[in-house]
Amino acid sequence: MAIATINPATGETIKTFTPATADEITDAIERASTTFESYRTTAFEQRAGWLRATADLLEAEADDVAKTMTLEMGKTLESAKAEVLKCAKGFRYYADHGEQMLADEKADAEAVGASAAYVRYQPLGVVLAIMPWNFPLWQAVRFAAPALMAGNVGLLKHASNVPQCALYLADVIRRGGFPEGCFQTLLIGSKEVEAILRDPRVAAATLTGSEPAGRSVAAIAGDEVKHTVLELGGSDPFVVMPSADIAKAAEVAVTARVQNNGQSCIAAKRFIVHTDVYDEFTTEFVDRMKKLTVGDPMDPDTDVGPLATEQGRTDVEVLVANAVGAGATVLTGGEPIDQPGWFYPPTVIGDITPEMDMYTAEVFGPVASLYRVGDIDEALQVANATSFGLGSNAWTTDADEQERFINGLEAGQVFINGMTVSYPELPFGGIKRSGYGRELSEHGIREFCNVKTVWVG
């Protein structure tokens, strides 16, 4: 894929970029390695000041940055601005709490025969971040803010269709005061990743993306015995039980499905509804999906913009056609919109069976699949019948049912009576083929630290 800004609302190529040469990549790695040796000794207070200055810049420039994000990947302008402000919040969160999170942890010195015993967290070094296009700033900031606060330095290999966002992030971090080499964007294709990851100056890697990409990076890192964090997507369940507020559940379900034009790893994708409230929920849900406005993502009245790439829309079309061909029922949508750009309408499909690809695959677009279940046991069985395990949602006011879902849903996150959202304060990540490791909270900042045991006799 060419490194280029292509407007997904029109298909027009706006700007192309020349990939970094081998020498430029080598220079960037050396710059990062050299910078780390001095940056790792900077005080937490200094790093926190730079994080806050970066947050100030993001807030001041939010309108312009949001337009760039919308132009490059098609999210609505409103959601793009919200993403920029969320990034500012993420930087401030680690500025405020990072030092405390990485403070020495006392151990029981007497129990181990020492005069002092504790754990110290120290940065690993140069970390390669391989990031996707769907949240072009937030995905990278989820890594960058804690990594920089911990004393690590970063190399960003971003998706090829959001180069301007990638360059902006490195630039705003530099303008926030961080030394040259602390965070660099490499405009490269995927074929250059292996050599970078095998370079002895690169200590670790984090990837958010597809399962094949995750397998590749994990295999290389495993061969080099380097630490990785992987977030590889999900097919999140959204379970609705009879005690739920059905109108509220249906309202939130729409947002949970079409957020970011349906292109979110933690978007609810499979709606599993108890038979006693199935018809009521379906009527409300489908009616709300029909009323959504699809169009120019720069227009404030637009609810759903285009998919980010032409291939992404094709992938959605294939999954829907496979389901319909095997007997699924389209309740709304289901046909590509005949206009320039890569638009796909909000779609709801019922009568999904295990023989259909949609039963287990992640549909990365505004397509919801509906499942009717008879009880909580069947709801859990359907919810867990996927190789993914990232987020999950359950709607019930019954305390016993809530506990069953909290314990029984196979996912890294369970949200009861609400949609899955990433917060700096909470760990983010998955199980099964959704990956391993955690971002955000104290767990995220410690992922790229040496957890060093100290024993003093």
UniProtKB/TrEMBL annotation:
Annotated Gene3D superfamilies: Aldehyde Dehydrogenase, Chain A, domain 1 (3.40.605.10), Aldehyde Dehydrogenase, Chain A, domain 2 (3.40.309.10)
Similarity comment: Belongs to the aldehyde dehydrogenase family.
UniProt keyword tRNA processing, yes or no: no
PROSITE patterns: ALDEHYDE_DEHYDR_CYS
Pfam family for this entry, one: Aldedh
InterPro entries, sorted: Ald_DH/histidinol_DH, Ald_DH_C, Ald_DH_CS_CYS, Ald_DH_N, Aldehyde_DH_dom, ALDH_GabD1-like, GABD/Sad-like
Official protein name in the record: NADP-dependent succinic semialdehyde dehydrogenase
Gene Ontology MF annotations: aldehyde dehydrogenase [NAD(P)+] activity; succinate-semialdehyde dehydrogenase (NAD+) activity
UniProt keyword Oxidoreductase, yes or no: yes
Keywords, ordered alphabetically: NADP, Oxidoreductase
Annotated SUPFAM superfamilies: ALDH-like
Domain Aldehyde dehydrogenase: start-end pairs: 3-454
PANTHER family in UniProt: SUCCINATE SEMIALDEHYDE DEHYDROGENASE [NAD(P)+] SAD (PTHR43217:SF1)
